[in-house]
Amino acid sequence: MDPRSYNAREIRNGDLTAEHLSAIFAETRLDLESEIRTFQRLKGLHVDGCAGPKTRAAIDKTQTARRCYPLRCLQDGRKPVETSAYKTRNPSRPTHCGSDFFYRYHDDDPDVPALYHITKRGKRRWWYPTDVAIVAAAAGEVTIAGETGTGHRVWVDHRDGTRTGYFHCRSLLVAKGSEVELGDPIAMPGASPKGGKVHLHFEWSPSGYYQPRDPLVWLAGASFLAG
User: Fold this and answer.
1) Are 140 and 186 in contact (CB under 8 A)?
2) 214 contacts 86 by C-beta, under 8 angstroms
3) What is the torsion angle, in degrees rounded to the nearest 10, for the CA atoms of residue 81, residue 85, residue 91 and residue 93?
């Protein structure tokens, strides 16, 4: 059967759900059959562009994998907040290939150097505490850990065809080949030498090649770990 007709039927029947589609799409609403083929290739499935039972089962497994946000909550429960979105949700930054995370600033927070906070209209709005580590968003193997032009970075391969990247680090707590579990500290954040404030830049890409996708799709349903 033609993949387009097959998938349309599965959507009508309710077997191919919105949750399946959000897990498949690499960008915002590209051709469904092409995205299914990419997913099947990543998972080692038969590549035909049809979201049949085996493909849907693999999507379900991906959706239920243990994941967490790459920063823990602060002691008072404040969650990390995405302050600069992936390029398809961020028209002002068409080359931004990930999500930037800070914490919301409270007036009673300790004073930190200017590099650690963002001020808007004369008032501090976002900040990054000096002692909060970046954590592995899922279990896997560290495949890259080293310096780049924008600071140290770490890539963790999750052995499901995907990997996550952590950028602008000032120091690393892991090395290439390290095995990490969900929530393990992997780096301390920094600022890009090219400019900006101390924060985490987080990316998601297929394992075998660099094609960054919207990290919030990967983080859908992820937990927030307590500080």
Assistant:
1) no
2) yes
3) 110
